[in-house]
Amino acid sequence: MRPFLFLAFATLATAQNRPGINYDEAKVGNHPLPPLLIAKDGSKVETSEQWTSKRHPEILQLFRDHVFGHTPAMPDDVKMEVTGTNTDALGGLATRKFVHISLAKHPQWAGMDVMIYIPNGLAKPAPVFCGLSFGGNHAVSKETDIPLSTRWMRESKEKNIVDHRATEATRGTESSRWPLEMIVKAGFAVATAYYGDIEPDHAEGWKDGLRAALSLDGPNTAWKANDWGAIGAWSWGISRILDYCETDKAIDAKHAAVIGHSRLGKTSLWAGAQDERFGLVISNNSGEGGAALSRRDYGETTKVITKAFPHWFCATYANYADAPNANPIDQHMLIALMAPRAAYIASAQEDNWADQKGEFLSGLHASDVYALFGKTGVGVKDWPAVNTPVGDSIGYHMRTGKHDVTDYDWEQYLKFAARHFGR
Ligand code: GCU
């Protein structure tokens, strides 16, 4: 075999068929899901009031105890400083602001640098999309005057990350996932920060991040089984972005969406579950630990994810590595926590690692809770064909292509947000 062909084959083989991973729908198993609408005391949940006062808090607590861990009490020293404003960004389309968010009494945490684009010339304050990036603000935007992130990043020759730091060559490299002009032209603001500002994404990363700073013992902390993991910390950061938005007169923070891709899609769901100020919660290809049902043995499993990324979750989650069915929750319950707010789940056709059908089924099952509020969730019973968006209060689509965020995805989110935010 010529080396080129062999390489191409090997890449495909890893992406599609990691050894020991099931991709056969006939073998996913048929495990009953934990009931959404039966409370812990065995009573039926039949009204929106019963959901809100009883079942919703129970399920939120289950996710804290078994998956993401507990978010500590809000510190009283959050500091937000606007460090730069440019009213002529994106060729005059937007005003760009930088905001440094830190904790005045916890200087061990270097804080986070939020970048915000607000459309110019709107008659009213702009609704906003909040979300974290993988590569930093300078990677999200193509504008060349954006400060290069100086924080830890995963080493990658291919991505021009050298000595764990971004280089000039990384400018704009995440811009296809953040179509800023499209978002701003649709009348939305967008507020983002580098996820590694909050916590570097590796097993020991918490020692240099928010979690150590907020812990009494700092980097010597011995975590308890249900203490928060990195996803908890990243979600906390997204809520602080929204805190800033609430103070900015040009932003309509009453109409805020949270968005994230992949591990940051899991983060977006956990942020949206905990912070009800987000009226729309978007999961883009979030997969295992995100929107995908974990009882389905298809693509990534609880076992694989807790072994590869133990720091994302609370320690208890790993107890379900060999027994996802013993977990008192499954991911349809995470989507249900958004009800009656709007939610959107997106899959990609080539992203079977994320179990696209399992992502859809979470939305389908969560729809039962929307019904209590007189709302329609995904509004269909069958997994829709590719490039066929569906949904009322829960949007869903599976687009052609790979694990990524594309213009197609954003077109759907912008339409959905406009509908739900009454624009
Ligand atoms: C890995 C991981 C996924 C995650 C993804 C990402 O593939 O197994 O769970 O969603 O990384 O964040 O890109």
Structure description:
This protein is α/β, with parallel strands linked by helices. The chain is built from 12 helices and 9 strands. It has helices at 3-16, 48-68, 137-140, 180-185, 195-198, 210-214, 230-247, 263-274, 302-308, 331-336, 356-372, 407-420; strands spanning 78-89, 94-103, 112-119, 126-133, 189-194, 251-261, 278-284, 342-348, 394-399. A 9-stranded mixed beta sheet has the order 1-2-3-5-4-6-7-8-9, with helices on both faces. The radius of gyration is 21 Å and the shape is globular. Bound molecules: alpha-D-glucopyranuronic acid (GCU). Alpha-D-glucopyranuronic acid is lined by residues 262-263, 287-288, 300, 305, 308, 353.
Shape: globular
Radius of gyration using CA atoms only: 21 Å
Order of helices and strands: HHEEEEHHEHHHEHEHHEHEH
- Biggest sheet overview: 9 strands, mixed
Helix amount, in percent? Answer: 25-40%
Q: What structural category characterises the helix and strand content? A: alpha/beta
Described by its quaternary structure, the protein is: single chain
Give start-end ranges of low-pLDDT stretches. Answer: 1-15
In order across it, which strands form the biggest sheet? 1-2-3-5-4-6-7-8-9
Treating each run of at least 4 consecutive H or I residues as one helix, how many helices? Answer: 12
Strand content: 15-25%
Task: Kindly state the number of beta strands.
Answer: 9
| Ligand catalogue | alpha-D-glucopyranuronic acid
Q: What is the residue-averaged pLDDT? A: 95
Distance between the termini: 57 Å
